[in-house]
Amino acid sequence: AFFKPAHRPLVGKTIVVTSGPTVEPIDPVRYIANRSSGKQGHAIAAALARLGATVRLVSGPVSIPDPEGVSVVHVETAREMKQAVEKHLPADAAVMVAAVADWRVESEWGQKLKKQPGGGAPTLRMVENPDILAGVGHHAERPRLVVGFAAETQDLLANARKKLEKKGADWIVANDVSHEGGVMGGDRNHVRIVSKSGVEEWPEMTKEEVAARLAEKIAEALGE
Ligand code: CTP
Ligand code: CA
After folding, report:
1. Which residue, by CA, sits nearest to atom 12 of ligand 1?
2. CA 152, CA 137: separation in Å to the nearest integer?
3. Which of 28, 146, 159, 216 is the most interior residue, by most CB within 10 Å?
4. How far is the CA of 21 from the centre of ligand 2 (A)?
5. 102 a known binding residue?
6. 193: which residues sit within 8 A by CB, 6+ positions away?
7. Which-ligand-closest: CA of 131?
């Protein structure tokens, strides 16, 4: 009589989550990457697992531990992340939280680039990486619910709406990263959930709280 019945509305649902940065090699010792601690994505994966979901987390290199109750595939590049995500389809939902590097060096040098005496700096030719979220949003085995994230420094809602449309997502979790010392690497987040039916603003809260609330919202959407 003292036990609270477990609240596990996501039992039987499979959800793919991406988290962390991707890392794009320049040569064997150097890379280009995005700023991302993985805190928000990992917290979401853990929160979904607590609600009973089978969670497949695809993570770039981060310094935090694998979340409990979640199977994790560790990747480095955007291309590896895309391949790992698509291997996990079909799924009931996808939540793409990773800070994917938009560009990579066109061809990685096989040897360490050396400084030349009196020589200048190398010029890097970049090419665009595949868009993993858009790939999932337009996939033949598209999950019923596709959620993306957007960190913006200006025109938050207009940019989020454009991403929603272009990437075939159902929701974009948008956060304003224009202020100093904020979201990046921090423990708190202030988000708006942008969907076709409007914008839902959530008060500022911890990344854990955002994760728990988002997991509940996902459970509700998948329960309909
Ligand atoms: N994303 C992705 N693959 C990429 C780039 C982004 O899956 N190559 C996903 C991110 O995980 C996030 C969403 O798309 O869920 C938005 O990422 P963002 O960087 O804000 O969008 P971009 O389309 O890259 O636009 P920009 O960086 O120019 O604002
Ligand atoms: Ca980007």
Report:
1. 149
2. 21
3. 146
4. 11
5. yes
6. 171, 172, 173, 174, 199, 200, 202, 217
7. 1
> 0.80 exceeded by the pTM?
yes
Low-confidence ranges of the chain (pLDDT < 50): none
**Strand 191-195 relative to strand 188-189, pairing:** unpaired
- Cα radius of gyration rounded to whole Å, the chain: 19
* Distance of CA 11 from the midpoint of ligand 1 (Å): 29
Q: Which atom of ligand 1 lies at the shortest distance from residue 18's CA?
A: 11
| pLDDT for residue 181 | 58
Annotated active-site residue 34? The verdict is yes
User: Which bound ligand lies closest to the C-alpha atom of 169?
Assistant: 1
DSSP lists the bridge partners of residue 89 as: none
3 is in an annotated binding site: no
Candidates 48, 59, 47, 38; CA nearest to 15 is: 48
pLDDT at 182: 56
Say which residue the tokens 């202030």 belong to: 190
pLDDT at 184: 65
Q: Tokens for 121?
A: 């700096």
Task: List C-alpha distances in Å: 75 to 43, 144, 165, 194.
Answer: 18, 25, 27, 29
Strand bridging mode 93-96 / 14-19: parallel
